[in-house]
Specification:
This protein folds into two domains: about 110 residues, Beta-Lactamase (2-Layer Sandwich), CATH 3.30.450; about 220 residues, Helix Hairpins, CATH 1.10.287. The protein is elongated and about 95 Å long. With about 400 residues, it is an alpha+beta fold. Helices cover about 65% and strands about 10% of the residues. The structure holds flavin mononucleotide. The site of flavin mononucleotide (FMN) has 16 residues, from strand 1, helix 3, strand 3, strand 4 and strand 5.
Length: about 400
């Protein structure tokens, strides 16, 4: 790997100054597999303030800013070396020491990687700046290894409500695209808006699935207590013992089904996040391609070759985005099957509850707390039905937005 040139002309008086550039401007750079810069566009060259001959064939860390947590680059390389795309906020350092922020999307291309970057301005970006500063301070003070820093970053993202890094980067790119449309007085991108609604519906769906799970856990004591109470009634309690043992087996089935149900809900959210990230990536890549047609090629670079790289990459991500929609449709169908299974189990639960109610009425149930237990069963059943009703609404909304996206694609 080549060394960074020694002639970096940092100007101490401008170290805290930001390089200004407009929201319309998009950067791109392409590297080989070791991160050596092979080409880029004029925005990248101008904002970094280096001459082309100082950038080309140099490692990308040439523009690394010391405020950047190492953990972010560690995650970046782990992901792209694995053949996956990644999006990240990056603070860069221009040649004179000034800084500039970008949201970068790095994707594997033939022979290396391509990074397209936009100027961030969302509320999430403001939050990310604070998180980066805290993480960098920890890295320095506690002498953290990059992988340790990455683990801290991931757990912090979970605290902030993101399931994982993929959920964070998809929220970040969509918020940045919405914010950028506002900054540039552009009409809202309908597909991104549609995807953002999908993200909210998937969140609703998961919230209700989790509520049903909590209701199950909150009532887990009922079957055992019913059996105990029925046994106090001696021979009179025999039918009740049968009812409670039926309930125990349905309850076990519900527990099994709930696990699949929750997993299926999470998969819906995951494929929606992936689809959103792929669509946003292909949109930005398309814009970079369009801008590059009017760009001045860098020293010695072949515009045709670069255009081909950009075009192929954009087409590939646009295809991936279309496949993403199919994946969401498939996942939502599977989730609906899980909902159907839950409904069936709830009907069986209702039969058990009614039988229990009739039986307890014929017993001297006031001597026991059987009535209360049967009422608890009723509340549990209601919680499932209420949750499933809300989930149905989210399912409908998801199917509607998927149809809109399929029409638009
Ligand atoms: C396509 C691509 C684009 C990159 N863009 C940047 C960038 O804009 N700024 C940056 O500091 N590092 C960027 N990197 C990461 C650098 O290669 C490097 O990992 C990082 O600067 C940290 O340096 P270090 O790995 O030596 O700690 C990029 C890497 C790739 C593959």
């Amino acid at each position: 790997m080549e060394k960074i040139p020694e002639n970096i002309q940092e100007n101490p008086s401008v170290l805290n100054e930001e390089v200004d550039f407009s929201f319309d401007e998009l950067f791109f750079s392409r590297t080989n597999e070791s991160g050596i810069i092979l080409s880029g566009n004029s925005v990248f060259q101008r904002i970094s303030n280096y001459a082309w001959n100082e950038i080309l064939s140099k490692p990308h860390k040439l523009i690394r800013h010391n405020d950047m947590p190492r953990a972010v680059f560690w995650l970046l390389w782990e992901t792209i070396k694995n053949g996956q795309p990644i999006g990240a906020y990056v603070k860069n350092r221009a040649k004179d020491g000034r800084y500039y922020w970008v949201f970068a999307i790095v994707t594997p291309v033939e022979g290396g990687f391509l990074s397209v970057r936009l100027k961030p301005s969302s509320a999430l970006f403001e939050a990310a700046k604070g998180e980066y500063a805290a993480l960098r301070a920890m890295e320095i003070n506690d002498n953290l290894k990059p992988a340790e820093g990455a683990a801290i970053l991931l757990s912090r993202l979970q605290e902030l409500g993101f399931r994982d890094y993929a959920a964070f980067m998809s929220a970040a790119i969509s918020q940045e695209m919405v914010a950028r449309d506002i900054q540039t007085d552009r009409q809202e991108d309908n597909c991104i808006a549609c995807f953002n609604r999908l993200v909210s519906s998937a969140q609703c769906l998961q919230d209700h699935a989790t509520k049903i799970f909590s209701a199950y856990e909150g009532n887990a004591y009922v079957p055992l207590n019913m059996t105990i109470q029925a046994s106090h009634l001696g021979n009179f309690g025999a039918p009740m013992c049968v009812i409670s043992s039926n309930y125990t087996s349905i309850s076990e089935e519900i527990q099994e089904n709930l696990k699949c149900f929750l997993e299926s809900g999470t998969k819906v959210a995951r494929v929606i996040d992936e689809g959103l990230f792929l669509l946003a990536t292909s949109r930005i890549q398309r814009e970079v391609f369009d801008h590059f047609q009017q760009d001045t090629p860098n020293d010695g670079a072949s515009r045709d070759q670069e255009m081909e790289f950009l075009d192929q990459q954009q087409q590939s991500y646009s295809e991936k985005a279309a496949q993403g929609l199919d994946a969401i449709s498939l996942q939502i169908r599977q989730f609906q099957q899980a909902c159907l299974a839950m409904r069936k189990l709830t009907s069986i639960l209702e039969v058990t509850r009614v039988m229990g109610k009739i039986e307890s009425a014929s017993l001297d149930a006031s001597r026991t707390s059987l009535n209360d237990l049967i009422d608890d069963l009723g509340s549990f059943q209601k919680a499932i039905l209420d949750g499933l009703k809300e989930i149905d609404e989210s399912n409908k909304a998801i199917r509607f937005d998927i149809e809109q996206l399929l029409k638009a694609s």
